[in-house]
Input
Amino acid sequence: MSPEPSSSDRLLAVDRLVKRFGGFRALDGVSFALGAGEVLGLVGPNGSGKTTCINTISGLYPPDGGAVRFAGQTLGGLPPHRRARLGINRTFQSPRPFASLTVRQNVALAAAYGRRHGADAGPADIAALLAELELDGLAERRAEDLNSAQQKQLDLARALATRPRLLLVDELAAGLNPAELARMAERLAALAGGGMALLVVEHLLGFLDRLTDRVIVMNAGREIFEGTLSEATRDGEVVRVFLGGEHVG
Amino acid sequence: MLVHALLGGVIYGCYFTLIGLGLNLVFGVMRIVNLAHGDVLMLGAFAAFFLFHLVGLSPFIAAPVVMVGFFLLGLPFYYLVVPRLALAKDAEMLSLILFFGIQQIIEALAAIVFGSSERSIPGRVLGVGPFHFLGQTLSRAWVIGAAIAAGAVIALYLYLYHTRSGLLTRAVMASRDEALASGIDIHRISARAFAIGLALAGLAGVFAPFMLGSVTPAMGVSVNLAAFAVIIVGSLGNPLGTVAGGLIYGVGLLLMQTYFSAWADLLPNLLLIGVLLARPTGLLGRRVRLA
Amino acid sequence: MRDFLSVGLPVVAIFALLPLVYANQLLLFNFVLFLILAQGLNAIYGFTGYLPFGYVGFFGAGAYGFALAVMHLAAPPALALLLAGLAALVLAMILTPLLRLSGAYFAIANLAAAQAVYQVIANPALQDITKGPYGVSLASVFAPRASYGAALLILAGVLALVAWLRHGRFGLALQAGRDDPVSAAMAGIPVVSSRIIAWLISALIAGLAGGVFAWHISVFYPETAFDLSTSIFAIVFTLFGGAATLSGPIAGVILLYGLYNLIGISVPQYFQLIYGALIVGLVLFLPRGLASLLQRRGVDVP
Output
């Protein structure tokens, strides 16, 4: 194994991140780093802070402590639309399309507003992206008329339309059938192969297993384990948190 | 003069608490903006007027009659309108428009049935002579209005904090979804709160002829603005916070009338905007997440 | 632009020709005025979801901006009209923080703001400046035909604007922010600043409408300029036809304001009753307006 590069060289460095809601510490000093082309899984019981972590990195919540560095830049209170233009994007646990717009408009807007300045998207670009995510047949439908699996594809298409360097994936697999799952895993793996960094929050460990070997296990806003998925399943504390029903904290 | 303005403000403010109380309860439980609240109050005032002039009932007896009547009307009315509204994507905003429509209907019907002339009830039915307190002379009607309002606040507090139904009502206020998930019959609880809200508006209406001057079908709009100022200043969605709003409003109004009478009408609006802008989260919660 | 050519331009042309065959120019003017106001309200409510209950505040600010410019600066009507728009724009800038509020809070605060502006302008203490509650008379610039023409020009501009909002990048971004502000931000859309632009545009339109109103009728009182039913009419017309479309608010104005003039003038209470019932029925059974009847069948309503 090659030595771990220092976190400042990595695309994303999360350093002792804290997020409080009232007196509740949803994130309590989480740190990790992620390089281009890497996939990092984020697992943990409900309420352990995974989605809060993604929301804070994507700028929906300002952090109450710690820092998020992206491509060498400390993000601080940078608003989400500026982060999108820097190359950070995400999908949502339950899809959040622009309901009254068509599928094509959903994607075209993200391409128009979400890319770094100068990177323009032509109609052909958008058509190719829609085809890749099997949305080409639905391009002129209003997003609210899509079923939930299709809306998940749309969420992903919209995120990809901004050409992200870091993609935060929040439970994309839930609700997909086995064939869809396999295709989605392949697709994400291909994105990572193309140099994109992926942070994947996932309950389905089988899905995660196809993507990455490196996971972080969270509980009560803290990281309790970092390593491979197979080690994690043998780790005493991880097993207790998942199976014991008694959440630490 | 200052003592009189302060004391009068507190007493007058109690009545304004009563005006806002039902509106705030309805908003807290249902997230519905009842723009017809002032018109329900107007109906209460007309009920008191006719009960007095046709049947000879004093307002003290008219008050429970009106409250029970409005409560019983409120239940079916809730089921007729609100569950359907709750289905919509943007229910809070649509409720504003819907209840504006209802307000128009009530106002139009009242104008057709009652005519648009000003009505009043002679003040002597509440008893004769002013009260004296701390060396100040206070209008008898104001003191009685304040006492009734205080009684209503205490009764609502007892309902919310010392009955099972009140406990469930607070659960719905805290989180509608969680309440639904834990098996609470939301509509039964909400219908009750809605009906109580109407009954409180009716009660305020019974004493409106003495507190607000004469009664006309068009009085609802200005009552609404005052009621909104009271509940927004006090804390929207928190019925007992209305008390703070009512007192601030009452004292503010009397101080303005004493020292800047030409600009006194501006007060409710400035108070409302000022509080909303200064403390959109603290006092009220809920603001746009991305702002 | 094709919506503007197919829907907007014909409407303007019809109202340009109608005075030749129909003598009641004041009524025609009022139709044009409400077409402007309904589309102006559409620009903020339809495209961002913010319901400005106090929209009339901008209209009144425009009317008084025009009047003050004529009375105190002896401005010619064209300049006074620009100042009317500017007055509303400045008011909207002052009120921009209201956009931090959501839903009902915004609507109520906006209503209170409109009332406050009215109370300041109508205050007898300011009689030397605004003529307070006694109203203004602008007989020196009275010119019904020119002001009708100006109203038509404003209408044409506003219709073109809404047509652009429906299909242009900026308007789509606004709609995305209305549908879901969080995912719109993640798509790179500056949700807050684009909303503010829509707010200013919408206020500017109402200000111009108020200015041209002041010019056309030339004698008015503060309660006419700040009549709350102006807001309500604009909201209901827009909602009835279908917000965020170009043709919906037009249909709403023609049908409902037509109905108002058939029955409302002689027996206002009965009209108020019908109107109230219409609103209730609309919200409960057709919350997305007439346009949604066609949209449900897959028709792209212009």
